[in-house]
Design goal:
Two copies of one chain form a homodimer.
Chain A (H helix, E strand, L loop, with lengths): L1 E5 L6 H10 L3 E6 L2 H9 L10 H12 L3 E5 L6 H11 L3 E4 L6 H4 L3 H24 L5 E7 L16 E7 L5 E7 L7 H20 L2 E7 L1 E3 L25 H11 L3 E4 L5 E6 H13 L9 E5 L2 E4 H12 L3 E4 L16 H5 L11 H11 L22 H6 L9 H4 L1
Parallel strand pairs in A: 1-2, 1-4, 2-3, 4-5, 5-8, 8-12, 9-11, 10-14
Antiparallel strand pairs in A: 6-7, 11-13
Helix pairs in contact in A: 1-9, 4-6, 6-7, 8-10, 8-12
Amino acid sequence: MRIIVIGGDGFCGWPTATHLSAHGHEVTIVDNLARRAISEELDAHSLTPIRPLGTRVQAWEETTGRTIAYHYLDAATDYDQLRALLTRLQPDAVVHFAEQRAAPYSMKSSAHKRYTVANNTAATHNLLCALVEAEVDSHLVHLGTMGVYGYTTTAAPLPEGYLTVQIPGPEGETEEREILYPANPGSIYHLTKTQDQLAFQFYNANDGLRITDLHQGIVWGTQTEETHLDGRLINRFDYDGDFGTVLNRFLMQAGVGHPLTVHGSGGQTRAFIHIRDTVRCIRLAIETPPEAAEGVRIFNQATETGRIRDLAQKVSKLTGATIDFQANPRKEAAENELRMRNEGLRTLGWEPITLDNGLMEEVRAIAERYAHRCDLSKIPAHSFWTRPKPTEEEAAADPTAVPFTHPAQAG
Amino acid sequence: MRIIVIGGDGFCGWPTATHLSAHGHEVTIVDNLARRAISEELDAHSLTPIRPLGTRVQAWEETTGRTIAYHYLDAATDYDQLRALLTRLQPDAVVHFAEQRAAPYSMKSSAHKRYTVANNTAATHNLLCALVEAEVDSHLVHLGTMGVYGYTTTAAPLPEGYLTVQIPGPEGETEEREILYPANPGSIYHLTKTQDQLAFQFYNANDGLRITDLHQGIVWGTQTEETHLDGRLINRFDYDGDFGTVLNRFLMQAGVGHPLTVHGSGGQTRAFIHIRDTVRCIRLAIETPPEAAEGVRIFNQATETGRIRDLAQKVSKLTGATIDFQANPRKEAAENELRMRNEGLRTLGWEPITLDNGLMEEVRAIAERYAHRCDLSKIPAHSFWTRPKPTEEEAAADPTAVPFTHPAQAG
């Protein structure tokens, strides 16, 4: 198939692009390299020495004999170029990773909130709009998040996108209706993904677009079969307080001899998936596209759930690292249960990789290998969900001071 | 109270600003005059001779002795100015009209879809973000739409924003939950209002913002007690296929001797409210603000519901006008029932004006008075919900032709 991967240079995008190419698909990457720019902004870089995208695609061709095309393009702002590219390539599928994907980064400041909303809502809508205007019959595969459901304990496992509810009628009867699962976003980043869902529903209903929305768990791991083939293909590995995902942070902290940082009680339960499963699931979704008449197809792209402090203990047991409980910068429930269904992708042939199959050791080994590249000062989380109240002294000095800089950021 | 009305130059904004001022509030209008610019774009102007905003506020002061301040500012793009204004004025309430409000205009072309999404999502989010960053404890009053619920027949009357549902549990038990009523937007414009709802939920929960979302019916009428006081205060009256609201279009068509244009079978049922009730409801919401802990307060701001063809018949009977059934440019159910609850605003003291109380005649008289300003060519609807398939000839000539111009727009 002919496939465009928008955001194909990122943590999930690059492994996806190479995996699809390895499986015989004709892949074009579109990226504005925003993730690399943010690394510069934060001065928080990939633990692994990732190469420029040009080098990556050249190394891919040298290693595998397969080509991946690349266009520098910002899906949120370069609408006409995006539409023209769709018209020219007539892709069978478009994978949409072109969103700011870190919850802490999205809460870092007013400017980061606004960037996340502007970028994510525009990238998604531009893509939908361009598919309609260009009259290209592509299957859109979007990376959503398990976080659209929110992390409150529910009696039933979280279904895949839709919920059947009973609505009481005026005469005591009930009306059964299938609805999009009620959204409960926990950050500005998650908010944008819930807003995306509504846009997908509209464009599917009004324009007949074929859309799969993959509600992904927290990704861990770094290398895939493809990125492992050559050193220049190595995937990025983020460990900083904004972009580092929790399990990778634990494994990296263990690898460099740092205590495992757990926020709050660690009672938060989350869903997880290994990067190798991410790329397989996306390929399976692409190779078995839905019909428009089915509505937007939604899968939970997550392997299993786990409580944060249990994960920390697991890593501690594996590596001997100590655990350091810190104040939680997020506004969230201290403890929650989480169960979910994920039969959709299994039905397409997915056999998930669990936390216990040995890959944790692989991640720790990678972290250890690149420990010399680690900047320990980037580990603490500095993005706060709510602005701490200024001290009386601060308020007296300048009651209307804006913009706000948190002391931890200023230091 | 000190009140900012963002979008205070528009069809609902200007009557709201003057009404609040007449009732003793200290009003500041913020507007980017986008609605006037769009009139120029479409060459479709208010039937009534509205004056420039500067003249309006001057006339208001001369007529009533009360002042209304005015700042030219784009809430969607001028974030820093918006935040600084909030910091300086410390308003008790902010009324948010700063959104593109016409469903047909939002579907006119790819560019109009993207403008509507970009403007509406950014204006709403900037305002929320600025209230938090400036630490201003204002009550935000937003104009939503009954259209967020969608126009499908339901067993029970539409509740005010929230729905209590029963969710089946794994053991046959049920879990009762109150959820935001499932969104079902019928246009890009309506989509943005459903996306706004999610942003309001998040900022209320995370930052404790006090928010009232008024899901308004289709507004009819033009003058209020305040805009009636002096000729220079006259409110706008739109009758074109994009911005004209259905009942005002019928009354205007009757006033100029044009058949009443009904789209499809006219079996669509909608909710309505007179402009005089719009301004009263907004004042009532402001004068009785909610607590943040209540969650986002949602009211249905609509008086009664009616079927389009019944309204046409009512106007026909009143005026002798004929009815002209035309193809429906929208993608919507041909027929639907609609019932709703509206006790929230009634509890605050609202006594609604119904369609039968004589004000239809007033609107028709205004239309007749300004009939000489009418451009009949602007009456037909030229915005289509789905792109008509090109003819074989068109496709052969240029299979990838973009951007698309509908013949009706090109003519």
